[in-house]
Amino acid sequence: MQDSSFVQLFPEQASTFAWQVDALYGYLILVSLVFSVPIIVAIFYFSIRYREREKYAVPREIHGSMVLETLWSVIPFFVSMSVFITGAIVYFGQYTPPDDAMEIYAVGKQWMWKFQHQTGQREINDLHIPVGRNVKLVMTTEDVIHSFYVPAFRTKADAVPGRYTYVWFNATKPGKYHLFCAEYCGLNHSGMIGTVYVMEPGDFDNWLSGNAGGETPVQVGKDLFENKLGCASCHAGGPQQRGAKLEGLFNTEVHLVGGGTVVADEDYIRNSILNPASQVVEGYQPIMPTFKGQVTEEQLNGLVAYIKSLSPNAAAAPATKKPDEKAPAEKKPEEKTPAANKAAK
Amino acid sequence: MSAHSHSDKFVYHEPGLQHQFGDMGQQEESVSLGMWLFLAQEIMFFGGLFTAYLVMRSKYPLAFASGSNHLDAFLGGANTLVLIVSSLTMALTVYYAQKGNRNMQVGLIVVTMLFGLTFLGIKAYEYTDKYNHGLVPMAGLNRKVKANAATTEHVGLVLPGETTVSASEAKPGAEPYVNPYGEFQWHEYELVQHMMDKQRAEPSGHYLTYNEQLTYSTSPGSLVLDKDKFRDKVRIFFYIYFVMTGLHALHMIIGLGVMAWLLWMAFKGTFSAEYFSPVEMSGLYWHFVDIVWIFLFPLLYLLGRHYVHLGL
Amino acid sequence: METVGAIEAGSYGTAKLNYLNNGSTLKSWLLTKDHKRIAIMYLISVSAFFLMGGLYAAAIRLELLTPASDLFETGTYNKVFTQHGILMVFFFLIPSIPAVLGNFLIPIMIGAKDLALPRINLLSLYVYWVGGAITLWALMQGGVDTGWTFYTPYSTTFSNTYVLAVGVGIFINGFSSILTGVNFLVTIHTMRAPGMTWFRLPLFVWAHYAVSLIFVLGTPVVAITLLLVAIERVAHVGIFDPALGGDPILFQHMFWFYSHPAVYIMVLPGMGIVSELIANFARKRIFGYEFVAFSSIGLAVFGFLVWGHHMFVSGQSMYASLVFSFLTMVVAIPSAIKMFNWTATLYQGSISFETPMLYGLAFMGLFLIGGFTGLYLGALGLNVHLTDTYFVIGHFHYVMVGGQVIAYLGGLHYWWPKITGKMYSEFWGRVAAMLIFVGFNLTFFPQLILGYLGMPRRYAAYPPELQVLNIFSTAGASVLGVGLTMPLFYFIHSLIKGKPAPANPWLLPGLEWRTSSPPPTENFDTPPVVTWEVYDFGDESGLDLEAAKREAAALTA
Fold first, then answer.
1. Cα C420-C424-C426 angle, rounded to 5 deg
2. Band of residue A237 on the pLDDT scale cut at 50, 70, 90
3. What is the band of B310 on the pLDDT scale with cuts at 50, 70, 90?
4. Is A53 helix (H, G, I), strand (E, B) or coil?
5. What is the fold of C34-556?
6. A40 contacts in chain C (CB < 8 Å)
7. What is the interface pTM, i.e. ipTM, of the complex?
8. Helix or strand run (H / E) with residue A180
9. Nearest-CA distance B310 → chain A (Å)
10. What digits encode the pLDDT tens for the residues C540-554?
């Protein structure tokens, strides 16, 4: 990729079918030249040879030739059929994932790529894969259409909301490769880029075992709670704490400042992290800062999972709560239902 | 007609002949070809809608059947009859225009217009019914009823096959119509519930398509009905219903405008055996609008009506 | 034999009444039913839109000079390329040749006094203006950022820009195309002069016949599609938004069902013009007239069957992709036939290289690249790599600009003496043609390479290693910009100071050259009767060649 030549003409080949695409490209360049060069030579030759020598001369009238017309209809037909057939063969290779492929979930989202390995590791905009393994991405998106594109792998597929699409590849060379979103997806479309890291199998295994992303959501939440966000400094549950105690909170009724009660379900926890002042628990001051914009959806899930895990009675819930990738299409209508719809229910 | 002709050589004095044409034959051929081409583009225009309808119906057949069953096939059938008869009177108008019979022309145009208005009247009545029952697929465009005002505004649970339950006919014990924000509402889940039960009892059966098993369930394939999700699909049916019938009604209104102009022309005695192509062209348009309805009626009102006889 | 008779090369348009000086009030223009005046008003309108679209293009190339999005924020850039696309496609490329040159010339070429439905023609202009005004209003309010393709669910649900207004503007504008198409079809069927048989029609008219078929059968589908998008935005119901149960791929099918044939709307009239230019400036009957004529119809028909090749990576079934790829390859044949026939026409001709011919030859070269790159994109395996990259951008600019715009300019130069009655500067005309050819290739050839390297389209920022080629492209765009601006100046100059044009400046046999320049309001003083074959440059054409030759010899002596 970091080619030192002045102007690069071909991208690097880094997948098993990259050479096929390049060969097809070469074949087409050959076809173009075989047809174009004679035509261009003829245009130039005729232009010079038959240039106007006398004004308003009347050249010999030629109506046409059935033989020539047939020739230049039939020959291009067979040539284009050869292109069609080779193109189709390459396409079937590109779009038929092998059965033994290692599956990775990919979710497009304005404007990032989220990947989850089957062993639980999550990545955003980076994708680590081993060299020489068949890798199949199971893709969908949370919002608009995106398109997963790695030029070095010569493959691309749209991620479509509401359904799963697939793309597969087998990387042949360790290295770093561009990952693009190729389908226009809004404001930061050109920022929806990333890097594919192709690693030697040993390195990949090391990466898998050493990567912090291998934590379960509860572990992620715990880490955020105790260290990264410092929630514990107020919510650890000690006697002098400024924030409410969270142990055993989940699925209980809490009393709010200004009257009213609310069940501390997932939505309530989520809302309290994002809009702390909106539902303050009785006996506490509205001093908690908002974490809106500071935590990702993933981290929020982690926090909610962790807080749930503090209430062992409801502890069954986090386990059944699958990551949102499992059914994005089905979750969406619910999330997007306007508030007014609730009144109708 | 051709006041802007500049050389006297080309001024023709046939009535209604425009300056660019050589004779009436050429003019009639041109106008008629133009009309047919216009109708061809109309077919493509409605064709786009029919495509959307077909794709959506094949994705959500039960939702569409439920929606279809809610429509009043009697009123739709009556409208079909009205339009077919109006096509007859329109065709007779052309006949009498060719004969140069002014009185019959005027009379038949008036009758055709009355049929057109009848159609629109029935359509308006149907739309009002949808408005009253919260079936307009756009929030805010339905009748808004606050919860505490609903006591006098009872509306019965509308079962498949039953229609137009007005406030006065409300069944005792039925849910009151409450819709404070004028949202889309749907209460008829019997059909889909029935099918879902059967599908659950007999997993290999084909009571729901695979796509429906995924998209009507609380979680994909659980076969537990999620009413909100199902309601969204019925909403698509009513969306297509309103767009299709609305565009058709718009064509009817334009047709009535054309007929009003035609009436005035006929009243003045413009048309004769030599010059009647405006009547013929308007007739083509009118027949086309009728034919669109002939397709809309079974697609929107009749398909899926057999579910009524399942004894639900 | 009552023909218009020979109008020899030297006879100048007299000061008699013509369509331009027949009435000078604003009303005489705005309420005219004269196809020539309507064409002039179209000319001014599409030029304005072209200028606006061109400014957006300049902004795009400036932004892409550097890898980072530093000139604009990404949001602004998104609006810029979207508006470039919408203005150019819907308000310049689609209407330009048919509504300006087709409108002006089809009735004259077939020997009619006017189009068959002049009031419909005027209506189409007003519809175009209303659609354009609504779109411009939306652009001034803040613009739109969906890309000209309006892909759902971005356009229905996620975009916060003026999608609704622009959709309505394009919806209305579509009916302008439909009305023009209906008018052309009727006119070509019923208004031909005595003796003007189907196979005596100039190929320009054949091309417009094919285009009109697409106008009538394709445009309504995109109209209803955009209407549905607009309603979805307002009512939040979903045929296209999967969150509400809809299907985003359905939108792509419905959109491309029109928008792929729309490509042929753009390029077919250009091919018609080039057929005229090649035949007339080689002074030869076009080689294989029937094949060129029917290949236009073939392109129009097959153009309706290949829309799915825009969706090879969208998740449509592989077998659907196979069929669409096969049909796409078949579409290559009519294009190839045209290309070969044009080349063969030059053989044994008497070729002169006036400005229009330069554009004609440039078209052949550029369309060769445009057509072949289409083959690359139609090949399934390669399409997966190339789609949505700059290869696509390069390809369709080779077809749209290298094909349509070059042909449009060629046609405008060719018929400018007929339209205005004035001669433009031949020298500046040739200079501009050269600049455009060079600038064009320098702009878009690097984009083909960029595309193969994997630079995605619609990116405000790109990897730094791709900068060199982007600089080439921007440099070429500046040359192209200069070249495209020049005609504006020398055309206007010709209106004021240009030599009066003779009725037939190049002694050509087409009917349009057998009436005065500019033509009278009803096109001919005496209704023409056609007794000669199409592209007949010999004695049977009724042209007084001997007198013209003597005159030319006297001029050079």
1. 150
2. low
3. low
4. coil
5. Cytochrome C Oxidase; Chain A (1.20.210)
6. 365, 368
7. 0.91
8. strand A175-181
9. 28
10. 888 888 888 787 777
